From TrEMBL:
Residues 192-290 form the HTH araC/xylS-type domain. SMART domains: HTH_ARAC. One of its GO terms (molecular function) is DNA-binding transcription factor activity. Pfam families: AraC_binding, HTH_18. InterPro entries: AraC-bd, Homeodomain-like_sf, HTH-like, HTH_AraC, RmlC-like_jellyroll, Tscrpt_reg_AraC-type_HTH. SUPFAM superfamilies: Homeodomain-like, Regulatory protein AraC. This is Helix-turn-helix domain-containing protein. It comes from Chitinophaga silvatica. It comes from the Bacteria. Keywords: DNA-binding, Transcription, Transcription regulation.
Length: 292
């Protein structure tokens, strides 16, 4: 395993022989793979990343969870997630890299994109399978984006924003019809706010009651709500976020187990090791060896 940190790419660093854009890259999958043969290894992005498979096989891993490739599959990633891929045969489809700020000049709500369930930052929720009848429409949207990029006209960026939002909405409608309905705003707002708070505070706040207080609900309500929405208690969601960060840090061979325990706010190395093994079935050292 490399002794360096997992590399983090920005959009410009993945430009494909064209004028680099800081906000958007759209490409056919085969062209993208040919231009960036080295990024099959674990890496992160500083942007939202979307891949759409129309042909091919193999697997891709997002935050240490492995998924088999299938035609009609899309995977959505938020900034900071770790992923890699292991493809067999010729892969076809499309890739999109889009910055978090791409829509800011276009939408009043800076957090609009986070409303889509596939941008939750949870690996399994970011991998969706399109019904066969929806595949042509999504492919057509990607082709329209490529045409717009290759033959720029007036209001080009705004057209690309419209096409991108149309893609997100059509995928969401096809795979999760209940999302976005006006009669369900409270549940999705509470879930989104809880997940954002966990993302901000998981290193310091480990108890559901801490988050319940920030959300102005009772701990019992928060736990029952999480079980209803996600099939997990609030405590499990907090714990899973701590474990994910531990796994990400363990990919850096230069960090000692003690340093990782300290960074994650554990009392000592022994407590961290017991916690990690209890919920993963491996010690941190064993997990790190399997990454090599």
């Amino acid at each position: 395993m490399s002794k360096a940190l997992i590399p983090t790419y920005d959009i410009c660093s993945l430009a494909m022989g064209k004028p680099a854009s800081e906000d958007l890259l759209v490409a056919r999958f085969s062209d993208y793979l040919e231009a960036h043969k080295d990024i099959r290894f674990p890496h992160r992005h500083s942007f939202y990343h979307l891949a759409f498979f129309t042909a091919g096989s193999g697997a891709h891993t997002i935050d240490f969870e492995r998924f088999q490739v299938a035609p009609g599959q899309l995977y959505f990633m938020v900034p900071g997630q770790v992923h890699s891929w292991f493809f067999t045969g010729k892969i076809e489809g499309y890739v999109m890299n889009v910055s978090a700020s791409f829509f800011n000049a276009f939408l009043q709500d800076d957090n609009y994109v986070e409303r889509f369930p596939f941008f939750s930052g949870v690996s399994a929720e970011g991998v969706v399978q399109l019904p066969r009848e929806n595949i042509p429409a999504i492919s057509e949207l990607f082709e329209s984006m490529l045409t717009e990029i290759q033959n720029p006209q007036g209001y080009g960026l705004d057209m690309l924003r419209l096409l991108t939002l149309e893609l997100f909405i059509k995928v969401s409608r096809a795979t999760n019809p209940a999302s976005g309905k006006q009669e369900l705003p409270h549940n999705y707002l509470l879930l989104r706010n809880f997940r954002k708070l966990v993302e901000q505070h998981y290193m310091q706040l480990r108890l559901p009651k801490d988050y319940a207080a920030l959300l102005y609900v009772t701990p019992n309500y928060l736990n029952s709500f999480c079980r209803h929405m996600l099939g997990k208690s609030a405590g499990e969601i907090i714990r899973d976020r701590v474990l994910l960060e531990a796994k990400r840090l363990l990919t850096n061979a230069d960090m000692s187990i003690a340093s990782i325990a300290w960074q994650l706010n554990f009392a000592d190395n022994s407590y961290f090791t017991k916690f990690f093994k209890k919920y993963t079935g491996q010690t941190p050292e064993e997990f790190r060896k399997h990454l090599a």
